[in-house]
Amino acid sequence: MSHGDLKSYYVRFSKNWEETLVRCYFPNPHLDDDEKRTDMQPEKLQAFEEARDRWVGKEENLIFVQR
Fold it and tell me: What superkingdom does the record give (predicted)?
């Protein structure tokens, strides 16, 4: 389901910009469990930020992409 203006929350592990090894998606804090828009859910954002902060910048092959 596309929500147009919403961002995806994920951490991407890759060898370079062309080759993604794995992408770990996190629940969007602006969507409920049925993927309908809802008020911001800070606990979902916090889970993403903790994983991002744990991995991004630790290895040269880890890339944070905000889309």
Answer: Eukaryota
Q: In order along the chain (67 residues), what is the average pLDDT of each group of 10 residues? A: 70 71 87 92 92 73 54
Amino acid at 13: F
pTM: 0.64
Please state, in angstroms and rounded to a whole number, the distance separating the CA atoms of residues 33 and 56. 27
CA neighbor of 40 nearest in space, from 27, 52, 53: 27
Helix, strand or coil, per DSSP, at residue 21: strand
Q: Say how far residue 23 (Cα) sits from the centre of its chain.
A: 9
Q: Taking the domains of the chain in order of start, what are their residue ranges? A: 9-64
